[in-house]
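Record now logged for everyone:
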Amino acid sequence: MWNRNRLTPSPTTKITAMIIVLMGVSGSGKTTVGKLLAARLGWHFADGDDFHPHANVEKMQSGSPLTDEDRRPWLRALREYIDDSYRRGQNLVLACSALHHDYREYLAADKSGHVRYVHLEGSEELISKRLANGRGQFMPSSLVDSQFDALEPPDDATQVDITPEPTVIVEQIIHDLGLTPPESA
């Protein structure tokens, strides 16, 4: 089981951390679920959207999908953040679309299985409704099709349905990953 805040190494043990990446299309609830999950576990939370360069944010807000070239600096910044958290032994919940297999491999490289992906899944209809109600931080509902077109469903991620309430989703993730929240959370 993973310690709720930090893994406590012995003097001969390498410091490691668990990184949970909540992935999925825009509007799947990554940020909402991520904040609740991190609070429940007593872990640090980061939103991958906060790592986008300003030009990416403007492009998404204008209704244009990002290209792989647009995503390179974003992925590099996320990788550096994950690497830093891992080196410091800081458990982390990261909300990040991670739509492509190559992106997920890049973000998890050299972590010996310490990066765990949780795919928040929902129907295109449900996601469209959420985005139409303003639940996407940068992404207008007009880009739902591009999100689903870009998604390469992961084979190795924990799959979680987004239909239930966020607190139910959090408990499902904790159960599926075999985590033990702190007593007071």
Observations:
- The beta strands are 19-23, 44-47, 92-95, 115-121, 158-161.
- The first strand starts at residue 19 and ends at 23.
- The chain is about 40% helix and 15% strand.
